[in-house]
Structure formats: C-alpha cells, structure tokens
Amino acid sequence: MKRYSPDSTRRRNTTPLKEVFEELLDTYRLKDKFSEKTVIKEWDQLMGKTVASRTESLSVRQKILYVKIVSGPLKKEIMMNKSKVLTLIEDKYGKGVINDLVIL
C-alpha cells in the first residue's frame, strides 16, 4: 500500500537550516533586529572578559550601540578606540548592523 498518491509532488531537494532561517529573517524584515540582539548577546566574546565584567548594560536604538561601563579608565580606553570596536563589530556581524557607539 502506497502512502502517497501518485499525482502528489514531493520536494526532493533539501536546504540547510541556516539558509532557511536567513531567508525567514529577510522575508519578515527581522535581520537587523536579530543582528543587534546577537551583538548584545556576544559582547563578552567580542570584547573579552575584562570589558564584559565592567559592562553594566548594553542596548541598541536606531543602529547605535549604547554601552554603560562602570570603570573610568576602561571607559576612556574604549572611547579612544571607538573606531576599532566598530570595525570589530562590522567584521563579525556585517556592515550596517551598528553605525555608532556611545559610551555611558
């Protein structure tokens, strides 16, 4: 006994889950929000344990990353290397995910 009727068409090609997920994000215009949340989630991996342990809060609004640092010297260091941090983010997550960095 056959499970499928002979006239039913069944897809025989498969697509990797990653491609399907990216297509879904593009279709529903969620790619930017997803990338922003990924930057926040992976801040400790991107900047290292020292910076992450002294980061009090992170948020993104209108492609601007707001970072609240509790250490004065570290805050000054990051402000001086702002372009380097933005380059790190751009290299890992793509151009246009984060356009500016504000240290609070």
Top keywords for this entry?
104 residues; alpha+beta; GMP Synthetase, Chain A, domain 3; three-stranded mixed beta sheet; 6 helices; 3 strands; elongated
* Helix proportion: 40-55%
Q: Supply the number of helical segments.
A: 6
Main sheet strand line-up: 1-2-3
Q: What can be said about the biggest beta sheet?
A: 3 strands, mixed
Walk me through what this model shows:
The protein is of the alpha+beta class. It has a domain at 32-103: GMP Synthetase, Chain A, domain 3 (2-Layer Sandwich). Helices cover 51% and strands 16% of the residues. The protein contains six helices and three strands; from the N terminus they run ααααββααβ. The protein has helices at 17-27, 31-41, 43-47, 49-53, 72-80, 82-93, and strands at 55-61, 64-69, 100-103. It has a three-stranded mixed β-sheet. The longest helix is centred in the last third of the chain and has 12 residues, at 82-93. This is DUF721 domain-containing protein. InterPro entries: DciA-like.
Describe the structure in brief.
By secondary structure, the protein is of the alpha+beta class.
